[in-house]
């Protein structure tokens, strides 16, 4: 059945995603072109991983011990040299101007005696993480401190914000993107958004794994939209897991900067175990090392119910008061005393290092299509450093906005009628999307998360195929159901991209640990690229890198 007549909305620049990258892109684009539209599956400025983030931005601020080169080096070290160095240099160079821009847009950063308060996060060789000021009730939505002023600015600047619109397909003419199709979830209608240029800023794919700390709608849509438009993804095997997720008495991601102030991990026997796994850095090791160490302790039965302890009792009271006062108060409200109690923590899927291949201008392989923020790959390599993602979102969001707008200003208007689209209403399968999705996410956690092998990844691949078949037997009853169906179909494709890339890389590097290939191997210096030739027919290529930094 055809889903009825399609309403059209025209724009110069169409932005898919209302998180930090999308809003930063909009603020740049409106400076050049008049018609900028931001589409968001939930509500722009109230969604995505930016909302639940800790509000920490890494930045090299001139005048201290830090340097641009040192920041680049730290990021490359953490990424095990898999990063695109050009993108990393842009990140480092543009980090201070990005903070200045954010302040200009009304974002407030924590300061001490008028100076930025800079924290030392694991993996960075010096303190360079700045944090936003957030309100007393915003412990679990600290990103609001960034998003609220940006959303206000974007509306004041005249961009059109369309909330509760899930983009389901990019529309192409020949080798150029000319818009997108979206389902308005509130009005229950299909809309054709035509545009001169399109920016993908729809975030990562943490929700692919049953244990994660991502916002509910972060299901990898940008990746499946790109795959279905023939745009390749890189480094999809590199998924970051966050080591210190508290589940009880509240669900909360506990900041890595606690380690910089003296917190340590302990196993069920009370032993500090990080020194065994990372003798040099111990509790200042990177997230990948911490997660693998925790899984090591779980495997050796030195954990309690798959959890270890975060012991903050060694943090000196002044440091706790200065840097973690709000967290301390929040936990106290839930009956936890950080100065006495050890906090039970375990890893959860956190961040997609891989993503859409972009160049320094955020251009993708498809003319007119740009990507920025977590959905773009290349900046972080095999493992992301703490607080580098928000800086990335604002730096590359701005670049994408500027470049897309200047492309749109020059590009000819391609008038193309809305594409015809058919929804699958003939299926007889009775399974709900939720049932199939739970199975998919459980399979990804159990077989393709922190510790992988050919056997576990092959099992994951087989189960993904099974999910796809189960889904194809289902019909759709209405627009919302159709949106859920397509979201899950996309999740199956993205899960397959992760698994196929992880199967391809027969070594361990950064966040990608293969117990059948437990060491780094120089043969694998380069990136694994995954593209979809036609539905479910993937091409997986290894592209050697010749500019390795070590
Ligand atoms: C718990 C947590 C804490 C973190 N803390 C930090 C930190 O302190 N510092 C740091 O640097 N990084 C942190 N990160 C990572 C960082 O928050 C993200 O990488 C970053 O916010 C991504 O920004 P983005 O704009 O690319 O995507 P997001 O903020 O995730 O925004 C994506 C947007 O796309 C929309 N969307 C998705 N699919 C569709 C679709 N099909 N159609 C339309 N819209 C769609 C979403 O609704 C959302 O508005 C944290 C992450 C988590 C999960």
TrEMBL record:
Matches recorded under InterPro entries: FAD-dep_OxRdtase_2_FAD-bd (IPR003953), FAD/NAD-bd_sf (IPR036188), Fum_R/Succ_DH_flav-like_C_sf (IPR037099), Fum_Rdtase/Succ_DH_flav-like_C (IPR015939), SdhA/FrdA/AprA (IPR030664), Succ_DH/fumarate_Rdtase_cat_sf (IPR027477)
Record domain Fumarate reductase/succinate dehydrogenase flavoprotein-like C-terminal: where: 440-544
GO function term, MF aspect, one: steroid dehydrogenase activity, acting on the CH-CH group of donors
Catalytic residues of the enzyme: 287
Keyword annotations of the record: Flavoprotein, Oxidoreductase
Domain FAD-dependent oxidoreductase 2 FAD-binding: residue ranges: 12-390
Protein name: L-aspartate oxidase
Organism: Formimonas warabiya
């Amino acid at each position: 059945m055809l889903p009825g007549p399609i309403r059209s909305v025209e724009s110069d620049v169409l932005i898919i995603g209302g998180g930090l990258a999308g809003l930063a892109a909009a603020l740049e684009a409106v400076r050049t072109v008049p018609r900028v539209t931001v589409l968001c599956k939930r509500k722009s400025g109230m969604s995505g991983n930016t909302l639940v983030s800790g509000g920490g931005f890494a930045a090299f601020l001139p005048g201290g011990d830090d340097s641009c080169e040192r920041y680049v080096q730290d990021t490359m070290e953490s990424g095990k040299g898999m990063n695109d160095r050009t993108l990393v240099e842009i990140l480092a160079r543009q980090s201070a101007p990005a903070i200045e821009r954010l302040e200009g847009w009304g974002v407030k950063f924590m300061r001490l005696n008028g100076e930025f308060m800079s924290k030392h996060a694991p993996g960075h060789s010096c303190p360079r993480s700045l944090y936003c000021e957030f309100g007393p009730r915003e412990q679990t939505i600290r990103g609001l401190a960034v998003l609220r002023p940006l959303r206000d600015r974007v509306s004041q600047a005249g961009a059109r914000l369309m909330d509760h619109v899930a983009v389901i397909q990019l529309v192409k003419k020949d080798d150029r993107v000319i818009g997108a199709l979206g389902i308005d979830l509130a009005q229950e209608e299909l809309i054709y958004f035509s545009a001169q240029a399109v920016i993908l800023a729809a975030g990562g794919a943490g929700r692919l794994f049953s244990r994660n700390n991502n916002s509910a709608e972060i299901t990898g849509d940008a990746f499946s939209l790109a795959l279905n438009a023939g745009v390749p993804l890189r480094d999809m095997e590199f998924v970051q897991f966050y080591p210190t997720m508290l589940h009880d008495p509240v669900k909360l991601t506990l900041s890595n900067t606690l380690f910089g102030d003296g917190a340590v991990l302990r196993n069920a026997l009370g032993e500090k175990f990080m020194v065994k796994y990372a003798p040099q850095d111990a509790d200042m090791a990177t997230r990948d090392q911490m997660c693998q160490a925790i899984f090591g302790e779980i495997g050796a039965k030195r954990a309690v119910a798959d959890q270890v302890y975060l012991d903050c009792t060694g943090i000196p009271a002044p440091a706790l008061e200065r840097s973690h006062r709000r967290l301390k108060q929040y936990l106290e409200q839930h009956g936890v005393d950080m100065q006495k109690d050890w906090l039970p923590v375990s890893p959860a899927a956190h961040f997609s290092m891989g993503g859409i291949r972009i160049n320094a201008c955020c251009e993708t392989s498809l003319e007119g299509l740009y990507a920025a923020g977590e959905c773009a790959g290349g900046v972080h390599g095999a493992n992301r450093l703490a607080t580098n993602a928000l800086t990335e979102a604002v730096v590359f969001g701005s670049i994408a906005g500027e470049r897309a707008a200047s492309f749109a200003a020059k590009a000819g208007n391609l008038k193309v009628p809305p594409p015809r689209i058919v929804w699958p209403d003939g299926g007889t399968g009775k399974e709900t999307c939720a049932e199939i999705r739970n199975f998919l996410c459980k399979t990804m956690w159990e077989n393709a998360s922190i510790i992988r092998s050919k056997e576990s990844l092959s099992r994951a691949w087989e189960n993904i195929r099974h999910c796809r078949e189960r889904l194809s037997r289902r019909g759709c009853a209405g627009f919302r159901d159709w949106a859920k169906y397509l979201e899950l179909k996309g999740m199956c494709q993205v899960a397959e991209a992760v698994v196929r890339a992880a199967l391809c890389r027969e070594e361990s590097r950064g966040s990608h640990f293969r117990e059948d290939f437990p060491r780094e191997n120089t043969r694998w210096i380069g990136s694994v690229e995954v593209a979809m030739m036609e539905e479910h027919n993937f091409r997986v290529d290894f592209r050697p890198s010749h500019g390795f930094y070590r």
